[in-house]
Amino acid sequence: MHSHGISRERIGFFSRTPSWSEHMSPYNQIDIALDTIPFNSASTACDALWMGTPLVTLLGDQLAGRQAASILTGLGCPEWNHGGVC
């Protein structure tokens, strides 16, 4: 990320939380969510989008790597899928 001009302070990794409200709270501070690879999110993708946080994903070559891409395409945001649409 640094080579693309994104400072370390702007990147965050969040751990598992004990409650739903604690899980959803950080989305109020997130500019953009980057999906996991090789296994994409499904419910977590929906959580981010529900909270108004844009989600960018890589299009995988297996079902588990295409879930978020399918959600984004269904919502009319195929350009958020890096590597094409599913």
Compute the number of helices. 3
Low-pLDDT runs: none
Can you identify the CATH superfamily?
Glycogen Phosphorylase B
Q: N- to C-terminal separation?
A: 26 Å
Percentage of residues assigned to helices:
10-25%
How would you characterize this protein structure?
The chain has a single domain (2-82), classed as Glycogen Phosphorylase B (Rossmann fold, 3-Layer(aba) Sandwich). It has 3 helices and 3 strands; from the N terminus they run H-E-H-E-H-E. It has helices spanning 20-24, 43-50, 67-74; strands at residues 33-34, 55-58, 81-82. Helix 2 (43-50) links the parallel strand 1 (33-34) and strand 2. The chain is globular and about 30 Å long. It starts with 19 loop residues before the first helix and ends with a strand. The relative contact order is 0.15. The mean pLDDT is 88.
Task: Summarize the SSE layout with pairings.
Elements: H1 20-24, E1 33-34, H2 43-50, E2 55-58, H3 67-74, E3 81-82
Parallel strand pairs: 1-2, 2-3
Report a brief summary of the structure.
This protein has 86 residues and is α/β, with parallel strands linked by helices. Helices cover 24% and strands 9% of the residues. The mean pLDDT is 88.
Keywords, separated by commas or semicolons:
3 strands, three-stranded parallel β-sheet, 86 residues, alpha/beta, 24% helix, 3 helices, Rossmann fold, 9% strand
